[in-house]
Amino acid sequence: MTQLQYIAADGAQAAGFDVPDTIFGREYNEALVHQVVVAYQANARQGTRAQKDRGVVSHTTHKPWRQKGTGRARSGMSSSPLWRGGGRIFPNSPDENFTQKVNKKMYRAGMRSIMSQLVREGRVAVIDGLDVEAPKTKLLATRLKSLGLDSVLYIADSIDEKLMLAARNLPNVLVVEPRYMDPLSLIYYKKILIAKDAVSKVQEMLS
Predict the structure, then answer these.
(1) Between β-strands 124-127 and 13-19, what pairing exists: parallel, antiparallel or unpaired?
(2) Is it true that domain 2-45+98-206 has CATH number 3.40.1370.10?
(3) Which residues are within 8 A (CB) of 30 and not within 5 positions of it... i.e. 6 or more apart?
(4) From CA 6, how far away is CA 133, in angstroms rounded?
(5) In the chain, where are the structural domains located?
(6) Residue 54: which residues within 8 A CB-CB, separation 6 or more?
(7) Is 117 helix (H, G, I), strand (E, B) or coil?
(8) Distance between CA 165 and CA 145 in Å, rounded?
(9) Which residues have CB under 8 Å from 49's CB, separation 6+?
(10) Residue 104 burial by CB count (10 A; 0-12/13-18/19+): exposed, middle or buried?
(11) Distance of CA 141 to the CA centre of its chain
(12) Rounded to the nearest 5 degrees, what angle is found at the Cα of 20, between the Cα atoms of 29 and 204?
């Protein structure tokens, strides 16, 4: 078993929280983590950019100068990709597809590897709860400051509306349910807080 840091409801440090090694004690697989993170970023890209080829750019088809006798290189039209303002040879199109295939087994293995490494670095903790009395950003900011945290990914069993509203204006705080956690967020935030009631769901998702 692996022990995670446990934070009680009043913010006091309590005894460690036991979790299985199969999820939180795996070896770090750098190649797999790299593949999972790159695929996640690639799948988030949108093919919204468009470039013009030589058949679309607005240029005259008149030959710039005669073929021979000028001493300059031969040229057919100013829309040539070799000319400034000419069309692109391999233009980007709006229907460009950036997606990369990563099957569920690889994705979950990569997530387990990331989570295990974060545990070894002391960046994962279990907390009783992070509820706030009212949907006020100041209340949540004060609570996190009292815990000594400035960059937090909070994985909740279910998102409370008051907590969601209090967290959305804090740039370095993200509140998600276990099914919405992703490899990029796990790496980006300095501290990962898992609600006590959500630990079993995290284990189920990564198993």
Answers:
(1) unpaired
(2) yes
(3) none
(4) 22
(5) 2-45+98-206, 48-97
(6) 77, 79, 80, 81, 86, 87
(7) helix
(8) 18
(9) 92, 94, 96
(10) exposed
(11) 23
(12) 85
Our CA angle for 75, 49, 82, nearest 5°, is 15
First and final CA of the chain: distance in angstroms?
15
The H or E element containing residue 126 is strand 124-127
Tens digits of residue pLDDT in 114-137: 999 999 999 999 998 888 889 999
Helix (H) / strand (E) containing 22: helix 21-24
CA distance 77 to 79: 6
Can you read off the two tokens belonging to residue 40? 């996640």
CA atoms of 142 and 191, how far apart (whole Å): 16
- The model's pTM is 0.81
Distance CA 30, CA 153 (A): 22
Q: How many residues does this entry show for the chain?
A: 207
Structure tokens at 75: 């040229």
Query: Per-residue pLDDT tens for 10-55?
Result: 667 777 888 899 999 999 999 999 999 999 999 998 888 899 999 9
